[in-house]
Prior knowledge:
The chain is α/β, with parallel strands linked by helices. It folds into two domains: 3-162 and 313-438, FAD/NAD(P)-binding domain; 167-309, Elongation Factor Tu (Ef-tu), domain 3 (Beta Barrel), CATH 2.40.30. It has helices at 10-21, 62-72, 76-83, 96-109, 139-150, 198-210, 231-236, 288-295, 320-323, 348-366, 379-389, 415-438; strands at residues 3-6, 26-29, 53-56, 85-86, 91-94, 113-116, 129-131, 158-164, 167-169, 179-180, 192-196, 263-269, 276-279, 306-308, 311-318, 336-338. The strands form four sheets. Strands 10-11-12-13-9-14 form a six-stranded antiparallel β-sheet. Strands 6-2-1-7-16 form a five-stranded parallel β-sheet, covered by helices on one side. A three-stranded antiparallel β-sheet has the order 3-5-4. A hairpin with a 6-residue loop joins strand 12 (263-269) and strand 13. Helix 2 packs parallel to helix 12 (415-438). The longest helix has 24 residues, at 415-438. The radius of gyration is 23 Å and the shape is globular. The site of flavin-adenine dinucleotide has 34 residues, from helix 1 and helix 10. Flavin-adenine dinucleotide binds next to helix 1 and helix 10.
Amino acid sequence: xxxxxxxxxxxxxxxxxxxxxxxxxxxxxxxxxxxxxxxxxxxxxxxxxxxxxxxxxxxxxxxxxxxxxxxxxxxxxxxxxxxxxxxxxxxxxxxxxxxxxxxxxxxxxxxxxxxxxxxxxxxxxxxxxxxxxxxxxxxxxxxxxxxxxxxxxxxxxxxxxxxxxxxxxxxxxxxxxxxxxxxxxxxxxxxxxxxxxxxxxxxxxxxxxxxxxxxxxxxxxxxxxxxxxxxxxxxxxxxxxxxxxxxxxxxxxxxxxxxxxxxxxxxxxxxxxxxxxxxxxxxxxxxxxxxxxxxxxxxxxxxxxxxxxxxxxxxxxxxxxxxxxxxxxxxxxxxxxxxxxxxxxxxxxxxxxxxxxxxxxxxxxxxxxxxxxxxxxxxxxxxxxxxxxxxxxxxxxxxxxxxxxxxxxxxxxxxxxxxxxxxxxxxxxxxxxxxxxxxxxxxxxxxxxxxxxxxxx
Length: 457
Ligand SMILES: Cc1cc2nc3c(=O)[nH]c(=O)nc-3n(C[C@H](O)[C@H](O)[C@H](O)COP(=O)(O)OP(=O)(O)OC[C@H]3O[C@@H](n4cnc5c(N)ncnc54)[C@H](O)[C@@H]3O)c2cc1C
């Protein structure tokens, strides 16, 4: 059975390669150049639409771990990234034009992959399909996907805008300056509250208004939903507007003083990210450096380490926790798999990684095998766990970070040592899974065919 892959971006190109590598024929659909997206500029596959960085290569960091697992799984795109790397300190950055050119060349030369330069607007019933059309999926296909998702029992929908609040690492919060409380004492005191005096608020407000926003291209100009306005936009509506919105102090008496602060920033523990906190209602469109500077004016966050900065941009992604199972297959339509940003991950490398997994899984299905999801302790498994198990109502895409990986069985205080042990465990489990269930790591060329996933794992 052949596999249809829609979208020859980062995820789709890797998925196609992984299928071909397992002897499975692929029909790969790409709508460019006939129809393009507002961000892509070339006809090439796997175009990097913004930065040219594939993040840290420092050993025992979370982005390194994900890439290391991908290398061990024979990722074509990471191999080409290595070949086209440019100097970037501890990061893996590539010559973007050369990178996409080489990916296009490798995919085009592969006899098992048939390329169709056309926009897909409908999904064929019963065909084994990977949807990898990314955050800028064409309108017609978006409608088709929304129809497919709405047919699911829980009436799910597509999300079209990402409105992301910053996330900080828990152990970088100065707990001596903050307090735990629930508003009006209702429910358990799960929120960390960062109290501000009038002087502190004024300083924060002035810095926020003066901070530089990310430059918006015309197509990015958003009609913000009133319920998720960026904080700088709320601030522009008046000096006190934030104090009546996301920084509202009412009902949040500071137990140490017995008084209500002038303003409060609330931090909420991320459900599946045990070691991190979300700045509630702090979605914003400021440059990352500006966010680091302005948000460090919040009492308790002076030395905060940011796992993610706020962002608002167009993004099409499905409500994965309600719709997908850990093999990236739809629960209601198991012949349809999702990969890349549209399945609920964020970032270039995460998109390639899910393309790799979807390719392996689709190849297994195409040859009568049963896909075997990666172990929970691996970076692959942690990404899949997040997108399938996170709270579905307010689901937001995630990058790979240590707070997605499960904690160690015994507590290790030293952060570096903890991360080293988490990486060691992840790679050990990855190797067991990959060599036992999926195929041998090594030569990523299709001429070295691999055994396809079996039911025995
Ligand atoms: C403006 C913008 C900037 C970003 N910047 C970064 C960044 O700097 N760093 C980072 O890590 N991540 C960034 N991302 C997030 C994300 O990592 C990238 O979008 C990444 O390219 C996603 O990979 P993908 O394979 O899911 O989608 P894509 O790489 O976008 O691939 C999807 C492909 O599907 C094609 N397609 C769409 N609809 C159809 C259709 N109906 N029929 C056929 N083909 C179709 C598209 O033409 C495209 O080639 C950015 C996202 C956006 C929107």
